[in-house]
Design a protein that fits this description.
Length: 376
């Protein structure tokens, strides 16, 4: 299925009766989950796609009557800015949700999590792998994706396996970028190495010229990128134009399909680590289920890694809600999530317990092609 990004974004925005504040129904009529994420700005596709995948599953579950009451997902746009996210979160908490769900980004999630914790509201499936959100252990935070340490460990292992020793890092100058940088440094240290050069870009900026000059001058074999898709695409284009012939590696948060769309033919050979199975391969039942749901739902949805992660996150939350006996409340949602134990979601394994809220350490590498596809 092929649709333009513009038509997809318009369809998602137009369908968001789920998203209007304060026009929400009484708590007794629905199971309310609330999300703050970027739906505009340079990181918009991350929020759009992650939300769409979650919404796809919830609509499917509501239609099938899996739960006694429908799930309603209310979203607000934070533009990937922490202050806006904190303001959104305060407003969303006033709606008395069962949980905050599917937040996008490290700096934004770091702004929201203390508010969730203070109100004893579950904070479920943030789209980030930062260790700062996982340690110390927080009873109200549940992580369904692998950490950035897991992702960067696999990237560095792959680089070592192919004999690439001179590694540079291009990273976003905030909590997200620094979390990824720390992961790369830890992984390189295990190989008795360290980055040959570092350079940064500001959040929501594509001003990468100085970073390109710094890293190209260092002559690295590969550059690990810890950023969002627009900045990383701008860096790749300018670095290649400056004569750099090495390889680019990205962590999953970059937004795989968004990066491929930004780069076009220039995407060929760019590597991205992934924290959910490929939606493009029928090898796992979860991918077949997801693609069937996308096909059945129609043209406003598309299959990609970000939307599939949202779909899986919604599936986990729905299963936890289904297991609650009596009236759903925040405390028994926490207990239900902790009781899920080890499960296979169509070939994607998760484990949750009272002492461990990091459900998965799954990571694999993918490579972009010049015709917009992703190979795993």
């Amino acid at each position: 299925m092929s649709i333009t990004r513009r038509s997809f974004s318009r369809a998602v925005a137009g369908a968001a009766a789920l998203a209007a504040l304060p026009a929400v129904r009484a708590q007794g009529e629905r199971l309310l989950l609330c999300q703050s994420a970027p739906f505009t700005g340079p990181a918009a596709q991350l929020g759009i796609q992650f939300h769409a995948g979650a919404r796809l599953y919830f609509e499917q579950a509501n239609a099938q009557g899996i739960l006694r009451r429908p799930v309603e997902l209310v979203k607000m746009d934070d533009g990937y800015e922490p202050d806006r996210c904190a303001e959104n979160t305060r407003k969303l908490l006033n709606e008395d949700p069962l949980a905050l769900f599917a937040y996008v980004g490290t700096p934004t999630s770091l702004a929201a999590l203390p508010l969730a914790t203070a109100s004893k509201t579950p904070f479920i499936a943030p789209y980030t792998g930062a260790m700062g959100l996982r340690q110390p252990f927080n009873r109200y935070a549940f992580h369904l994706r692998a950490s950035y340490n897991d992702e960067t460990a696999l990237i560095v292992k792959q680089l070592a396996n192919v004999g690439m020793k001179k590694i540079a890092v291009f990273y976003q100058n905030d909590a997200y970028g620094k979390a990824g940088l720390e992961g790369v440094q830890l992984a390189l240290a295990s190989h008795e190495s360290k980055p040959v050069a570092l350079a940064t870009v500001e959040r929501n900026s594509v001003d990468v010229g100085a970073a390109v000059r710094t890293l190209v001058a260092a002559g690295p074999d590969a550059i690990v990128q810890i950023g969002a898709y627009k900045a990383c695409a701008a860096f790749i284009r300018q670095a290649r134009a400056a004569g750099y012939g090495g390889t680019f590696y990205n962590v999953s948060f970059v937004g795989t399909q968004a990066l491929a769309d930004e780069l076009g033919r220039d995407a060929a050979g760019v590597v991205v680590s992934q924290v959910v199975p490929s939606p493009y391969s029928p090898a796992r039942p979860i991918a077949r289920e997801f693609n069937e749901a996308v096909k059945k739902a129609g043209g406003e949805y598309q299959a990609n890694f970000s939307s599939m992660e949202g779909y899986i996150a919604a599936k986990v939350v729905t299963e936890a809600l289904r297991r609650i006996s009596g009236k759903p409340a925040r405390d028994n949602l926490v207990a239900s999530l902790e009781s899920l134990g080890s499960q296979s979601l169509g070939g994607f394994n998760i484990t949750l317990s009272p002492n461990d809220h990091a459900a998965s350490s799954f990571v694999e590498l993918s490579m972009l092609t010049g015709d917009g596809r992703v190979r795993t």
